[in-house]
Amino acid sequence: MPADEQNPEPPEPPAKPAGHRDPRVTQSWERVQLARHPKRPHARDYIQAIFTKFSEIHGDRNFGDDKSILAGMAFFDSQPVMIVAHQKGRDTKEKLLRNFGMPKPEGYRKAIRIMQLAEKFNRPIITLIDTPGAYPGIDGEERGQAEAIAYNLREMSRLKCPIVSVVIGEGGSGGALGIGVANRVYMLENAYYSVISPESCAAIIYRDSTKAPEASAALRMTATDLLEIGLIDGIVAEPLGGAHLDPMAAAHALRATLQEALTELSGHSPENLVKERFAKFRSMGSYFHEGVL
Length: 293
Prior knowledge:
alpha/beta, eight-stranded mixed beta sheet
């Protein structure tokens, strides 16, 4: 028997029709687009819908007040809490004022100042994450952008009060994590949380930024993906079509999640809150276990 008949070549896979895209890629990219929708509720919208008597605190007591970080005291039902959030703008003027939701070092220093006040007065901290990433400009680097984020990561891990974080839109890299070291981390259904934007990932890996949809699926950046691999604690359901179609329904769902998380964490001692938070983040990315030979 001829050798080629003994070991036949595997058949060629059927050609995909023009314009075909893997359903997983399509779904992932659609959620990225919803996370960036121009009418999607921002942090201030949720604060107005869920909290009462919000009193904003300004400045980092070092350089200035970063408008892309919204922070202050409020009441959740009758419980006093501290809120730290990324804030984007709606029109061009506000987008520039808020620096498109990209904090500079003074924003992160303001955030940790408010969080340390929360610890001092034994108040839970709620953070709302919605940023494409930390500001990458030269002036930010000159004032210590990387150091400011790293300092927040260390100090948040030590705070002896409950911390609940929710990704409400975009969760971009260290810019998001700088206010995201929490005991409980949730995501809205159509939010994303990733070490890099899909466009940047595609430009690096595929040398083609137009392959961002494929990169978004490969990054596993959606709420469903991240819950499956244990990087978040739960998903907040959105109205059909996205939070922008019914902001009040999205706010009610978020309120219920926050209520459940704060009720659960209220039974933990300060020492246990710190210990649990540290263990939570130390275990992330650990997928290999020793087995018996």
